Amino acid sequence: MNPALIALATLTCVSANQPKLTEVLSALEKATSFFESTYLYLDIDGVVGFRLLQAQLGHVMKKWSLSGPEAASQFQKVDDLLRRLDFTSVKAIKAMKMNGSKYSNAFQQILHVDFWTLKPGWMQTDTKMVYTGVRDSGCFDEDFSDRCITQLLGTWEENGIPCQDFDTCSSLMMALNCADYSLSHQLLYLIVAEHKRCSNIFGARHMDSKSSLIIQHYKKIFCSNMMQRNLEIEKKDFPYFQQDLFLENVMLCGYVGFSEFYKARWLEHILRWQLQSGCFGKGDKSGYLPRGERDVFTKLKRVKRREKHLQGGCSDHMTSLAVGALGGYLHFYGTSYNIAQSLSEL
């Protein structure tokens, strides 16, 4: 490509990203204010997205690539958010420890900022990996998923050993033709296995290049199907009862490096879902599903999320997913990787 054209394309990409960054930062500032006012009432599922956001912001600070009239103020906002999140996260984790619930204690490790390590570069999903059919009866329930993940973390019992594989966990957590929340739990299982370097679940002694290739292959399978699910949700105009699943797919697949989940048109919808208080949830929407339809969907998805509905129609789980997803958008638009990818597609 002509050097002058490259320079022009770079400037165009940067200028196009800055308004999006401003909107994302504004949404994250409001969500962080909500976090600061409600942290005492949140459990793991309500805090983990903010912790992932903290890791994303830290990475953005190191890899910031934008310049121009708004870039300095945007960078300062990132720095301010990072400080606020660190301060409130420490208080939230302390409050959870004092509460001492078995569930919170088992998953404390995923609240460490170092758990959420972002890797450079982006990948693409593959439509050829989309399942032609999925299991109607579901692959596993939430309790089974929790047990398998805690076996990897080593928190399945007091002084437990990490990277254990009991109860046929690896075979089910990497089974094909699963759908909806089972898929996102399978991806989380891989994220934990990779972080803990549990090569044994892939039949290897060490986390070598072969193990890494196996992990990447399964990530691509799962996220290709999660992308297909999100496109189906979009086609239905994002019904409220599927927004939580949609956000979970964006947060996790975006985090592991699939850039297609950061579509600009999806960002517009996510920003519209934020309530005035800064949270995400039902609010006063008249379109919220009646009880009977909610029960049908819960039966179909087979995995019932732990979720707290707070004052004003706020969902702690949905808010956590939304900030994790928006932090991914900030990482995507605010670092050089997005510019390099945009240029490669010209």
3D architecture notes:
- With about 350 residues, this protein is mainly alpha-helical.
- The protein has one domain.
- It contains 13 helices and two strands; from the N terminus they run αααααααααααββαα.
- The protein has a two-stranded antiparallel sheet with strand order 1-2.
- β1 and β2 form a beta hairpin.
- α1 packs parallel to α3.
- The longest helix has about 35 residues.
- The protein is globular.
- The N terminus and C terminus are likely disordered.
Total of domains = 1
Low-pLDDT runs of 5+ residues are: 1-15, 286-304, 337-346
Q: What share of residues are in beta strands?
A: under 5%
SSE run: HHHHHHHHHHHEEHH
| Radius of gyration of CA atoms, rounded to a whole number | 20 Å
| Mean of pLDDT | 84
Number of helices: 13
User: In total, how many beta strands?
Assistant: 2
Strand order in the sheet with the most strands? 1-2
Largest β sheet strand count, sense and barrel closure: 2 strands, antiparallel
Q: Identify the overall geometry.
A: globular
Helix content: 55-70%
